[in-house]
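Write out the 3D structure for:
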Amino acid sequence: MNVSLNDKSVLITGASTGIGRACALHLDQLGFQVFAGIRKQNDAESLLQSASNRLKPIYLDILKPDMISKASQTIEEEVKNHGLYGLINNAGIVTTGPLEFVPIDSIRTQFEVNVIGQIAVTQSFLHLIRLGQGRIINISSVSGRVASPFLGPYAASKFALEALSDSMRVELKPWNIHVAVIEPGPISTPIWNKSKKVAQTMLSKLPITAKTLYGDKIKSAMNWEKKLNQSMSSPDVVVNAIEHALLSNRPRTRYRIGVNGIVADLLARLASDKIRDWLITKQRNM
C-alpha cells in the first residue's frame, strides 16, 4: 500500500452510526480528510468529539437532490484541485416482511435509499473522483448474493446495487477509477435494531390473513435472527476491507466479509436454486 494520504479526501454517506461512523473515524486516524455524511446535529457533535480537526461533518440526505448538490459544492470548495480520493456509498435501510403484504410505498422507499440515492450521490461527486483519480466503494451485503425469505425488498436493492457497480466498474475503467463492492454478512450495527423495530411495526399492521399464512414462518425466521445476533461481527472487519479497497495497489472488485459472506458467495456461484432454497429453509426451520 504505497498511497500517500497527504491531501487525500474521502466522502462517506451514512456516517452517523455503525459501519459509516467506524469507517469515518478510522480513515480520519489514518490521515485522510474525511467528509462524514450525517443528518442530525447530535451526530455531527458526536463525531467531532471522537475525531481530529480533519474530519468535517456534511449534512447529506441522499433522498434530497438539493442537499446532495449543496454537499457537492461545499466539498468541491474544500478539496479544490485535489478532488476526492474516495466515495464510500454506505447509507442504507432494511425493509422486511412477506412480499405478498409489504406496502408498495415501503418497497419504493427501500429502492430510493439503497439504489437511487447511491447513484444520485455518485453522479454528483464523480467529477471530483475523476479529478482526484479516486475510487468508489459501494457497501452491499451478503443479501446482494443470496436472497432470504422476508428480506426480499432489501435483497433486491442490494442485487441492484451489485449490478450497477459491475456496470460502473467497466464504464469508469478508462479513467482508472476502481469500483469495489463490500459484501458483509451480519454486522453488529444499529441498522439491525432499526430494522427490527420497523419489522415489528409492519408485522403488527399485517392483516389477519397474512398472520395466518406466514405467522409461523415469520417466527422461525425471527428466532434464527436472534441466534444470528450472537455471532455478528464487529464493524471493524468491514472497515478493514474498506481500507484495503482504498489503499491497496491491487484492490479487489468484491470483498466477502465473514463466514456468512463466503458461504453466500459459494451458494450463489455453485449451488442450484433447489439446493439453495432447501438450505435456507432448513437453516431457518421453516
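The radius of gyration is 19 Å.
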